[in-house]
Amino acid sequence: MRAFTWRGRSETVSTADQKSDLPSRNHYKAIRPLLQSPAFIASHEKSDIRLYDTVPQPEPVVFSDSDVFRTHISSTPKPQTRIVSICCRSSLDPLSITESAMRKLTDTYDIDDSFIDHALLFGDKPRTSDSGHGGMTIREREDGAFDMHYRFTYSEGYQVRLEGPTKFTYRQVCVFHRYNPLGTGNLWIFLHARPYSELQTRLEREIATAPSDGVPNWFSLHLLVFATYIGNWRWCLRNLGERIEEAADIALTMDLSNPKVVSNTESLSLLLHPQNLVSAITPFSCQIGVTLTTIRKMAEANDLFLSKGLITDKQHQKLADETASYISNLEGYMKSVETLEKKVKGYSDLVRLIPANNEKLATTLTLNNQARMLQLTDASVEDNTNVFVVTMVTLVYLPSSFVSAFLGMNLFDFDAPEDRDFAASKKFWIFFAATLPLTCLTLGFWYFLSKHRKRARMQFNQVS
């Protein structure tokens, strides 16, 4: 046994696993410092791995412990078809499998590191910077098998309240497939963004009803993924279009000649809301475009397999029809995205141009800014007034307070003997000895704070 330490966390790996773990381990070690959040869980007892080693299989074998899963795939022979499904606890949580278990799986099947790059994107929400990545890649192995994998980003609707409006969020699913035309060593890996996803439900139903000789066609589970999620883009784009039109209609029908309307914060937000939707539309074309690339790659693989005699004409025609339909739908979604982008851009340009060409609107928008400034000014004046009152009261009572405190000290005797009406103590110097240093200390502290604030303000102005 020997221990590896990565970013402050140590993990013990058996000597028998060192050789098989080495390729992916080196890749993980290189990628890890670049990750903002972990892609895999740290505790092996919080796993959610579902395994299908026979087809059909009514229920999956569920592993809640990654170490048990590692032992299973290490000690059992590879079945004709193995399907592994791994879920996250939520769409923002890491995959419910440990790094060591994932390494064992990928090294046992000699899976390319490019699929691992897809897996490392879990543990966080899909980022705009990754929108253009994840298209299908296909590689032919020396034994005649084909490895293909891709990351599929999809939209999914949800409701915060039962009767509330439908909102859409964006999630991802990763798929790996090893297709062996000889019928042995086939492997599927599905990485889901959340447990009990719609794809997981359909997948279990498909496997439970599959024929005894395995999955019907090499492409059947790929089509299952597309059939589950591609149609969601239509409703997501429709929802976004409705939001744009609603905000634009409200903003364009405002009586901007009325200063009360323009000075209303809610009215101003409605006027500028469509411009804020630009950031939401921007990644759509890339995300849908990547899916379109994946579908076209499947169509190319379909032609390749037919030319090699690996599939029948009937299977080829079935997939050709399906991919043609999806390509047509995705191209339509791309055009819808372009239309929405043009509409939002046109409206944004209109909002910028109207103040320049319409003196009344320019005046009302200026009034809005002036109204806000007046509110701030009124608040500032009110605060200054309060400070002034407190200062005046303090100044009025300060002399009397000082006189009463000074004469109330034990340094004076107003009923002194020897016919003297007033006498001062010989220890009168104590008053000045205590007062003068405290006064100098207070003024020095005030001077230091004033200089410090002035220096900080100058540095801020230079930076800005």
UniProtKB/TrEMBL annotation:
<protein>
    <recommendedName>
        <fullName>CorA-like transporter domain-containing protein</fullName>
    </recommendedName>
</protein>
<keyword id="KW-0472">Membrane</keyword>
<feature type="transmembrane region" description="Helical">
    <location>
        <begin position="387"/>
        <end position="408"/>
    </location>
</feature>
<dbReference type="InterPro" id="IPR058257">
    <property type="entry name" value="CorA-like_dom"/>
</dbReference>
<keyword id="KW-1133">Transmembrane helix</keyword>
<dbReference type="InterPro" id="IPR045863">
    <property type="entry name" value="CorA_TM1_TM2"/>
</dbReference>
<feature type="transmembrane region" description="Helical">
    <location>
        <begin position="428"/>
        <end position="449"/>
    </location>
</feature>
<keyword id="KW-0812">Transmembrane</keyword>
<feature type="domain" description="CorA-like transporter">
    <location>
        <begin position="63"/>
        <end position="249"/>
    </location>
</feature>
<dbReference type="Pfam" id="PF26616">
    <property type="entry name" value="CorA-like"/>
</dbReference>
<dbReference type="GO" id="GO:0016020">
    <property type="term" value="C:membrane"/>
</dbReference>
